């Protein structure tokens, strides 16, 4: 198996895990969206995200550009595939999960520098906020930015040497959220 063939296999698996993690309990598609259109959507999202990664993530990227990339992904997907997306929109919460989770996998494989944000999900939300936020329905880029600022400001999360995020308020090791 050549290196290129191995990478294609790994990348296919990464995308399966990325979409699985981003779409679980998120009701991304309208009920009547065909399997063909869903596959086309995923294929085009992969291409769009890979283009962004190639363009911006070969070096450390600033947070402002990263947030713009997430917002542009959601806006692009909504314009292009709104006919199959629930409420005609790829929500910010789902878009950030797709983008940040894919970056996390690339980071774990030493393909990119440390990404600016970790993927926000229910576990991360429960560490940062007492307020119940359903990340799958989040569709406000300012709320997303504020959530990330709050997590950095309060210092509740830290990247650990074992490539995880530790909840600094918890006492036990099992409070670590693995990054890889």
Brief summary of the model shown:
The protein has 180 residues and is mainly alpha-helical. It contains six helices and three strands; from the N terminus they run ααααααβββ.
- Number of helices, counting only DSSP H or I runs of 4 residues or more: 6
Based on CA inertia axes, which overall geometry fits? globular
Count of domain modules = 1
Q: Would you tell me the overall average pLDDT?
A: 84
Topology order in helix (H) and strand (E) letters: HHHHHHEEE
Helical content stands at 55-70%
Strand order of the largest sheet: 1-2-3
**How widely separated are the two ends?**
25 Å
Radius of gyration: 16 Å
Largest sheet: 3 strands, antiparallel
Based on secondary structure, the structural category is mainly alpha
How much of the polypeptide forms β-strand, as a percent range?
5-15%
The poorly predicted ranges are: 159-163, 170-180
Number of strands: 3
Describe this protein's structure.
Strand 2 and strand 3 (176-178) form a beta hairpin. Mean pLDDT is 84; it is low at 159-163 and 170-180. The protein has one domain. The chain is built from 6 helices and 3 strands, in the order H-H-H-H-H-H-E-E-E. It has 180 residues and is mainly alpha-helical. It has helices at 3-23, 35-56, 63-81, 92-108, 122-128, 141-154, and strands at residues 157-159, 164-167, 176-178.
Walk me through the topology:
Blueprint: H1 3-23, H2 35-56, H3 63-81, H4 92-108, H5 122-128, H6 141-154, E1 157-159, E2 164-167, E3 176-178
Antiparallel strand pairs: 1-2, 2-3
Helix pairs in contact: 1-4, 2-3, 3-4
